[in-house]
Amino acid sequence: MRCVLAPDSFKGSLAAPAVAAAVASGLRRVLPDIVLDICPMADGGEGTLQALASAGAGALQSALVHDAEGLPRQVQWLHSDDLAVLEVAQVVGLPDVGRSTLAERHSGGVGELLRLLLDQGCRRVAIALGGSSTNDGGAGLLAALGGVWRDRDGQPLPPLPASWPQAVYFDESGLDPRLATLELVVWSDVSNPLCGPQGASAVFGPQKGLAAAQLPQFDAALQTLAQALLRQRPGLPLEVAGGGAAGGMGFALQWLGARQQSGAAAVAEVTGLAERIAAADWVITGEGRSDSQTLHGKAPALVAQLARAAGVPVSLLSGAVEDNPALAASFDGCFSLCPQPASLAEAMQHATAWLAQAAEQMLRLRLAARRQAC
């Protein structure tokens, strides 16, 4: 039997490669010689690089840049054939910030890393958005690439969100000229616009420490930045889908000419997941919690679509599974790792052992059904 293991991460508990390893250990208890194709998934957010590397889709490289608070930070990026992948969460990730406020953080380190990749000769770059601690509309990123934000008197502004309301002009004359020939893609499943009730500040700001009273101020600042950019290069709609991703970096990158792609679909493409599934007898996917949102672009739903297209059975093994008919109909069996009533803390604590146990029972059931059919 050949089985593809393509789980997403269990957020706050296990990274996708660790989930796959736990499932693999349970399957091997039943069939020690089972052929397992490990292909961890990600949706373009935190853990994307790790998932790609674990799936054999490229080699990790290191670079020194600055984080959201301006401190030196060693980060990784991935080189895959002619494509370089950088992960925003590696550079300005939310779990890595100290006591700084949102007004003190910027995305300059992402621009630094992009420039380093240009120095490495990279001509195709994908930026995995998600998990950022910033809400600067990508202004720091653009400044790190050589642009200058100026006030109404033409004076340069420091690359900090506190100065964005004063920005009336973006001087792009110093932008790295290599950007003009760079094929740039952003990986994200976020469709939120830059501003407004569904924008970066309103939807994602609170989890980054933004108080309700500050929302109008930050939202207005992002609109000011966008208008300054659009004075230079009109054509991109202010409400473009995905503009609010990663604190507004989605808008800045699309203004630079980046093409947006579903994160999960991009990871599947780079890893050759469709071909790997077509060669398998069974597919197992999963995530921390599966519910109605799973079917709206989440990695397990994409895995299920690829398996259905190839005529290969696909099962879901998640931390928790909502009682949802549409979800159940999308998989050949939906299973929770919990063997007993348990709190979230208990499930996270025992995730590795319980995943292995559940995978073992799933395979025993599958083998029993196969014997019965014969």
From TrEMBL:
GO molecular function ontology, one term from the record: glycerate kinase activity
EC number, as in UniProt: 2.7.1.31
Keywords from the named record: Kinase, Transferase
SUPFAM superfamilies from the UniProt entry: Glycerate kinase I (SSF110738)
Keyword Transferase appears in the UniProt entry: yes
Superkingdom in the source lineage: Bacteria
Family label: Belongs to the glycerate kinase type-1 family.
Record-linked NCBIfam families: glycerate kinase
Protein name: Glycerate kinase
